[in-house]
Specification:
The complex is a heterotrimer of chains A (about 325), B (about 325) and C (about 300). With about 325 residues, chain A is an all-alpha fold. Chain A folds into two domains: about 20-80, no CATH class; about 95-315, MetI-like fold (Orthogonal Bundle), CATH 1.10.3720. Chain A has 14 helices and two strands. Chain A has helices at about 5-30, 35-45, 50-60, 65-80, 95-130, 135-145, 150-165, 180-185, 190-215, 215-225, 230-270, 275-280, 285-315, 315-320; strands at about 85, 90. Chain A has a two-stranded antiparallel sheet. Chain B folds into two domains: about 5-90 and about 175-265, P-loop containing nucleotide triphosphate hydrolases (Rossmann fold); about 110-170, no CATH class. Chain B is built from twelve helices and twelve strands. Chain B has helices at about 45-55, 80-85, 100, 110-120, 125-140, 145, 155-170, 185-205, 215-220, 240-245, 250-255, 295; strands at about 5-15, 20-30, 35-40, 60-70, 75, 90-95, 175-180, 205-210, 225-230, 230-240, 305, 310. In chain B, a hairpin with a 2-residue loop joins β4 (about 60-70) and β5. The radius of gyration of chain B is 20 Å and the shape is globular. A two-stranded antiparallel ribbon of chain C has the order 1-2. In chain C, a hairpin with a 4-residue loop joins β1 and β2. The relative contact order of chain C is 0.15. The chains are: A mainly alpha (about 325), B alpha/beta (about 325), C mainly alpha (about 300).
């Protein structure tokens, strides 16, 4: 199979899954015990004309029309970028997303850079010193990093560095530029919170991938050629070891986006998608919650596809098949 | 003829959790200039460990415990890592058993041959490339110029092994060690690779250590033969001595295993012993039909029975440690 | 030596796994007999709110009826509440024990459900192949595409947050990894000689699946289950932490949620359940790693 047709096949698969995701979301919405209107109406106090609002919502969602028609409208409006209406903020969900995604992106970008750089370094260090005390200590801390719940870590960082030491008193301020010093300073604790688990995980991947590759015959061949050990490690172990790690990091990304980042945003009050979506949960803003879930799924799909394509470019065995 | 490489009382042990594996236990042999020396033995007899010990490529938990390996008057175990690196690939080169895993899949084969040259010589890129192509042509790779840019998975097993041989020849080594270079290949290809070795030897008057378990091959190509069993040498001598006048019961057994025009194949009963719990006395005695009282008690030493023919067995002369 | 003893011997040498196992046994005992020795976690006593743990003292502002104003007093930990109390004066030790019960229940049942569904889907898919395999695996792909936590939040948001529902949702969304693993292991087994042999001897599909295929994947399933438990426990804790947990039970996540608001005045409320959660998760991770090594024929 040539690479082009492989990518074409992967694209087709991605589209199929995306369609499945949208369909699943549609049915989840319909089997829910509440219609979107009920949920919202329950939060409205007296003084509103309930039946009028209800009718508006019903016609907007078209719940009075037949199911297949609803499904069709739903899919086409999604594809047109119409993600529904946010009742709690009185604006289209797509606008809401457009305002908030950058803050998530900034947090994730900074955390990823920190986690990838440190994770790879620690992993190589650990593998090069396999079974020494240094390796055992890093292994222990990697396990701790993987196991520590990041919301608790975040709280502990606040407790130690803000409450007790008083070092971090500022909060993220959307009024200032995203990359202003004050905002970057406010992001130090959140980035530590989010990056710790990622870093620990990556260092484990890198370590085991390095160790696996160190036992390969071609590494011995490289040594037998008389190459210096540093070049053997850099060229013949690390390059090969990085291949699966790149894929794993890509596949991991979406989990980070909508797992770790979600809660980190909530703890530190960073107005990203997670923070926005949780606010929507508590104000019963149905379409926002659903939209963020869908975005989560699409981002996952995107990274899966990118990981696959990246792998085909990086590994000549697949590239030339 | 002068000896180019002497192995004297080499001991290489592996210190595992279950106990010490005496993979190579006190062996000595000489390789003369232009000689093709075959080391024969079953798997686990210590052939490969011997080869890796010569190149000092033994990895933890293995260690060279004792012995001298003298290449042109220089004792290899006494060299610094930097000096040893200069010997590998330059003075002594090695061809490994499995060509499918001896080449790094993510680099072109041309790059890997280049590496073998530039590891020891500072030459410019163009010169390196043309030298590599020359080497590839020498080992019989058709359209070497084009194939220089290919990856290992685009080659057949036999062609891969030719590439590995080209890498080994890159710096015109004085000694070439080939560790079962044909075992992983198809029968017809085996014969071609074997021919290549003989051709190269005649062309460059190289000294070769050829490791194999296949006595049929040995009887065709060897100048002299070393027979190993459970980490020790049981018999060594010229090809004529060993093939037509084998002394040690194990060597005799091996030769009886060869398919011949007359007579049947007689397998040696039993298997190679556990290297952690070696039997007392002669390591071969549990499988030996001539086993005597003394064989269970004492370890026979390697004694000369006639000019350059050595055997380690109590059946021949007064043999006491 | 039988096979269980063999694996036990192998895992006994794994120090981290053994310490993990010891802590898990401690948790089980704590959950089982702890409630008999502690006060009820729901007893509210505003006179003893925000008591620090034994050995600590904090300054607190209290309204004094004699002085008629706020006065600052030193408050010390009391032996009646060795780990202190929360903002409503509820005993933290008994709340933590209740939380242990909740976490173990979630870990056990959610993982059990996930493993059973996953194993069934995986083995069906691999054994029958073709169109069935295709449909099941595409469905698995779709499930995997939803980020786990978001899907949980959505389900809990829609259907309400009782503990039973939380356990069910974790189980019903967490099976995809098992399905993939069991499928790939079964696929590699399916072509092995002994399966071919029993097929040739006329064994029924049912028999092959339950007597040959599943038992041979059991070691992988055990490892995966051990490593899925902390994920399930963490999911419940995360849901409770962001305020979507079952308000009827004292779970570690619920306590942490409360502790977040009082972090300025009563740090121990946020610290204690987190330590329990952290130790629990790391114990299961250590045990899982040890089991993986023990089952892996390649490792020494």
């Amino acid at each position: 199979m040539s690479m082009k047709s492989y990518i074409a096949k992967r694209l087709l698969h991605t589209i199929l899954i995306a369609w499945g995701v949208m369909t699943a979301a549609f049915f989840l919405m319909r089997i829910g015990p509440h219609s979107p209107a009920d949920k919202y109406l329950a939060t409205l106090g007296a003084g509103h004309n309930v039946s009028q609002v209800a009718a508006a919502i019903e016609s907007r969602y078209g719940v009075d029309r037949p199911l297949y028609e609803q499904y069709f409208t739903y899919i086409t409006s999604l594809l047109h970028g119409d993600w529904g209406w946010s009742f709690s903020t009185s604006m289209p969900v797509s606008d809401l997303i457009r305002t908030h995604w950058v803050y998530s992106f900034q947090l994730i970008l900074l955390s990823s850079i920190v986690a990838i750089l440190l994770g790879i370094t620690i992993g190589i260090f650990s593998a090069a010193r396999k079974n020494t005390t240094a390796d055992h200590i890093t292994t222990f801390f990697s396990f701790a990093g993987i196991s520590i719940p990041n919301f608790w870590l975040g709280m502990m960082l606040i407790l130690i560095f803000s409450v007790k030491l008083g070092w971090f008193k500022t909060y993220y301020d959307t009024g200032l530029p995203m990359f202003s010093l004050s905002n970057l300073y406010a992001l130090i604790l959140p980035v530590m919170t989010l990056a710790t688990g990622m870093m620990a995980g990556y260092s484990r991947y890198v370590r085991s991938s390095m160790l696996e590759n160190m036992n390969k015959d071609y590494v011995r061949t490289a040594r037998a050629k008389g190459l210096p050990e540093s070049i053997v490690l850099r060229r013949h172990v690390f390059r090969n070891a990085l291949l699966p790690v790149v894929t794993i990091i890509m596949l991991d990304m979406s989990g980070i986006f909508f797992g770790g980042a979600y809660i980190t945003e909530v703890i530190f009050g960073i107005p990203g998608l997670g923070w926005m979506s949780l606010k929507a949960v508590f104000s019963d803003d149905y379409s926002v919650v659903l939209a963020v879930t869908l975005i989560g799924a699409f981002v996952t799909l995107f990274f899966n596809l990118v990981a696959d394509i990246a792998y085909t470019y990086l590994d000549p065995r697949i590239r030339y098949e | 003829m002068e000896s180019i490489l002497s192995v004297e009382n080499l001991k290489t042990y592996f210190f595992t959790k279950k106990g010490t594996v005496k993979a190579v236990d006190d062996i000595s042999f000489d390789l003369r200039k232009g000689e093709l020396l075959c080391i024969v033995g079953e798997s686990g007899s210590g052939k490969t460990v011997t080869a890796l010990s010569i190149l000092r490529l033994i990895e933890s938990p293995g260690k060279i415990i004792d012995g001298r390996i003298i290449l042109n008057g220089r004792d290899l175990p006494g060299l610094s890592p930097g000096q040893m690196q200069d010997v590998r690939g330059n003075k002594i080169a090695m061809v490994f058993q499995d060509p499918h895993s001896s080449l790094n899949p993510i680099f072109t084969i041309g790059y890997q041959v280049d590496e073998a040259i530039t590891a020891h010589k500072s030459v410019n890129e163009n010169e390196t490339t043309s030298k590599s192509i020359e080497l590839l042509e020498l080992v019989g790779i058709p359209m070497a110029k084009e194939r220089y840019h290919d990856y290992s998975h685009q080659f057949s097993g036999g062609m891969k092994q030719r590439v590995v041989i080209a890498m080994a020849l890159a710096c015109h080594p004085e000694v070439l060690i080939a560790d079962e270079p044909t075992t992983a290949l198809d029968l017809t290809v085996q014969a071609q690779i074997l021919d290549l070795f003989l051709e190269l030897r005649n062309k460059f008057f190289m000294s070769i250590i050829y490791i194999t378990h296949d006595l049929a091959v040995v009887s065709e190509i060897a100048d002299s033969i070393v027979v190993m069993y459970a980490g020790r040498i049981v018999e060594k001598g010229s090809r004529e001595d060993i093939m037509s006048n084998p002394l040690h019961p194990y060597t005799k057994g091996l030769i009886r295993c060869l398919p011949s025009d007359h007579g049947e194949i007689v397998p040696i009963p039993g298997t190679i012993p556990n290297l952690i719990n070696l039997p007392q006395g002669c390591v071969f005695h549990p499988r030996c039909i001539h086993s005597m009282e003394i064989c269970r008690k004492k370890r026979p030493s390697l004694n000369m029975v006639k000019e350059a023919h050595y055997v380690s067995c109590f059946l021949y002369g007064d043999n006491h440690e | 030596m039988n096979i269980t003893t063999y694996y036990w011997e192998r895992i006994k040498g794994h120090r981290l796994a053994m310490s993990g196992l010891a802590f898990i046994i401690f948790l089980i005992l704590l959950a089982a007999i702890g409630p008999f020795f502690t006060v009820s976690p729901t007893v509210v006593n505003f006179d003893e709110k925000n008591l620090p743990p034994i050995g600590f003292s904090v300054e607190q502002s209290k309204f004094s009826s004699e002085a008629g104003s706020l006065i600052t007093t030193h408050v010390r930990g009391k032996w009646e509440h060795p780990l202190g109390t929360d903002g409503m004066g509820r005993d933290l030790l008994s709340q933590l024990i209740s939380g242990t019960r909740v976490s173990l229940l979630v870990g056990l049942f959610a993982t059990g459900l996930a493993i059973i569904i996953g194993a069934m889907v995986g083995v069906t898919s691999a054994y029958f192949g073709g169109i069935i395999d295709n449909i099941l695996m595409r469905f698995t792909d779709i499930m995997m595409t939803f980020p786990f936590l978001l899907l949980l939040i959505l389900i809990v948001y829609m259907f309400g947050s009782s503990l039973t529902l939380i356990i069910l949702s974790i189980g019903l969304t967490g099976w995809t990894g098992t399905a993939r693993l069991v499928r790939s292991e079964t696929l590699s087994l399916r072509t092995r000689e002994f399966i071919m042999a029993s097929k040739a001897l006329g064994a029924s599909d049912f028999r092959i699946v339950f007597h040959h295929l599943l038992p041979n994947t059991i070691s992988s399933i055990i490892v995966l289950a051990t490593l899925t438990i902390p994920g399930a426990i963490l999911a419940e804790a995360a849901l409770s932490f962001i305020g979507l947990g079952d308000p009827q039970v004292a779970s570690w996540g619920n306590i942490l949620n409360a502790g977040q608001n009082d972090i300025q005045t009563a740090w121990w409320i946020a610290v204690e359940p987190g330590i329990m959660l952290f130790l629990t998760i790391i114990s299961f991770n250590f045990l899982g790693e040890g089991l993986r090594d023990a089952f892996d024929p390649k490792s020494e």
